[in-house]
Amino acid sequence: QLAGRWFLVGVASRCSYLAEHSHRLEATAVTVTVPDGQILAVSTFRKLAGMCWEIRQRYLPAQARGRFLLKGSGYGRKVDVVLGETDHSSYAILYYQKGHSISVKLYGRSSQVSDAIVEKFEQHSRAVGLSEDLTYYFPTYG
């Protein structure tokens, strides 16, 4: 049900790089496929330094439905991904946890979502201690 095209609408995070470079955010599109019926193949397209880049990731299914594991290179480079809330046709809110650090991301089937969905995203973010000053929204152009 998560398969298809998504747009990264917003992210709430304590990431210092994001805070320092939030003025340079670019529209970001994501395509999700499920090639084997379990693993999510996530292809992220974004502009960086005037060029389009594709980042490919594989979200491995974890013990429970709606939970995934994103493995990075090196020791301790795993990210737990949890689907917090979705209606599959318009939005998805995902939690990303690496160690003690947590981020919340809002994806939309279009680059703009309703105010009600934004409010849900902000509620999820506040629930894990991420206030509005740690929330960044992506442009809808590009």
Question: What do these coordinates show?
Answer:
There is one protein chain. This protein is mainly beta and 142 residues long. It has one domain: Lipocalin (Beta Barrel), CATH 2.40.128.20. The chain has helices at 16-21, 115-127; strands at residues 4-12, 28-33, 40-48, 51-61, 67-71, 78-86, 91-98, 101-108, 135-137. Strand 6 and strand 7 form a beta hairpin. The longest helix is centred in the C-terminal third of the chain and has 13 residues, at 115-127. The protein is globular and about 35 Å long. 18% of the residues are buried. The mean pLDDT is 90.
Keywords:
single chain, 142 residues, mainly beta, Lipocalin, eight-stranded antiparallel β-barrel, 9 strands, 13% helix
Count of extended strands = 9
CATH topology: Lipocalin
Distance between the termini: 26 Å
Strand content: over 45%
The shape is globular
Helical content class: 10-25%
Helix/strand/pairing class, anyone?
mainly beta
Sketch the major β-sheet. 8 strands, antiparallel, barrel
Order of helices and strands: EHEEEEEEEHE
Low-confidence stretches: none
Discrete helix count: 2
CATH class: Mainly Beta
At the fourth CATH level, what is the homologous superfamily? Calycin beta-barrel core domain
As laid out across the biggest beta sheet, the strand order is 1-2-3-4-5-6-7-8
- Please indicate the count of domains: 1
Mean pLDDT score: 90
CATH architecture: Beta Barrel
Gist?
The protein has 142 residues and is mainly beta. The protein has one domain: Calycin beta-barrel core domain (Lipocalin). The protein contains 2 helices and 9 strands; from the N terminus they run E-H-E-E-E-E-E-E-E-H-E.
